[in-house]
Amino acid sequence: MMGDRRPEASGWSALTLGLDLTMLGLASSSALCDDAGTTLVYPPFGHCLGLHKVTDFHRFIYLGARTELDDPRGIAAVKLRERDDPSTGSADDELTVFGLNSGRCEIIFNRSLYEASVYGECGDGEGQFRAPLGIAADERGNVFVADTGNDRVVRLLYTDGSLRWVRTFGSTGSGERQFRRPTAVSVGASGTVYVCDSGNDRIVVLTSTGDPLRTIRGDIEQGVMLERPCGMAVVEDDDPWIASGRGAIVVSDRNGTRLLAFSTGGRLLRTLESGDLPIAGEARFGALAIDFYGNVYAIDGPNGAIHKVTRELIYVDSFGRPGDGDGRFDDPRGITLWRRFGQIFVTERDGAQYLWIGVEIQDLSVEPSELSPGGPPLRLSYRLTETSRVTLKLLDGRGRQVAEIVSNRRRRTGANTERWDRVRGAPPEGLAPGRYTLRLEARPTYSSGKYFQDIAEIEIRLLD
Length: 464
What we know:
Layout: H1 19-22, E1 40-41, H2 45-48, E2 53-54, H3 56-63, E3 72-78, E4 96-101, E5 106-110, E6 116-119, E7 121-122, E8 128-129, E9 134-137, E10 142-147, E11 152-159, E12 162-169, E13 171-172, E14 178-179, E15 182-187, E16 193-197, E17 202-206, E18 212-216, E19 218-219, E20 224-225, E21 231-235, E22 248-253, E23 258-262, E24 268-273, E25 288-290, E26 296-300, E27 305-309, E28 315-319, E29 321-322, E30 328-329, E31 334-338, E32 343-348, E33 351-357, E34 361-367, E35 370-371, E36 378-384, E37 388-395, E38 401-411, E39 414-420, E40 434-444, E41 454-462
């Protein structure tokens, strides 16, 4: 089944993104700041020549006086069919990334690895937007814009390197075909369009031609209703890059203080209050993205962070803090995630950043730390911030590997346990008493797995 595909690292083109131009990016180093953690990582220099952060300076290099960065907002990344080579099964070309330059009412996008373009201007006519906040795109070249200031959704078509106006959906109001301040839009694998209709406290589901299908307002029986929804991410169950049965509609509302997860049919599954996150201060959930495993990534502008929670809305980790360097965000606003390879694009106040899904090993502990012959087995406990391939090695006092206890096994996001009886993986002659080190290595299953692993170590003692 397509939905059962796993995003294992594979041999894809070293420059598989159009980020260089769409994000108009050029940055110095792909290293993280020391305290950033590795739940997200920047791609290695060899992948994109260090191109992972955008400023207005880089916009000028590629677009000159044609525009300037002014309130970057929504962003969408897609691999277009028209730019794919069907003769090869590999990911043979770059992504096309569409970014909303909201203050100038336009879309910036890459036409190739080497050329960028701009579409749109301010107004309410054809080819015009007013303070647009959300954008979505599919592999067929359909591009949908939440034209917030005009209370409508705009449908465009990308073809032959250009965007073409198709039509608009909606007008101002609260009727079946009307909107009030739509802030986000998503398009499913089926072509169904989902609109976050903030001013009407609802999610509107439409056909690709704008015909209403259903409206999601919350759950009356549970007494949970949408209130000023602001961010939204949607993945349908039959999407080729979502784990089987993990499709969902996730919404942020109440001024970013709550997350709600719905089935794609509109049934409320669970909620999460921002105050329940184990962080200093209170989170403010904004734009959202969903990865292959159904994990949710929520932008938090005031805290300069991205919060990651599972599909059950259980907290995993937070990445970033306010600032200008690597591992920091300056008022992040928009996020998109290419689920096949785990590539993430984030817009911020004066630019954008490009990251990969990584993994961090947390809360490593062992019990008992002294292992006697015939005694109870060792129990190693740890948390992973991403589903990963895990290897557990035993090193002697000189750092030499003397046993491989776990070899390249898949482990889930969250709490995990490994057990060892002093025999498995050890040499036939056994192991001498003394001090040893358990070395845990984790590689994410996404594309960063080829280039990145997190390592954690803990000492144990083998007794006579």
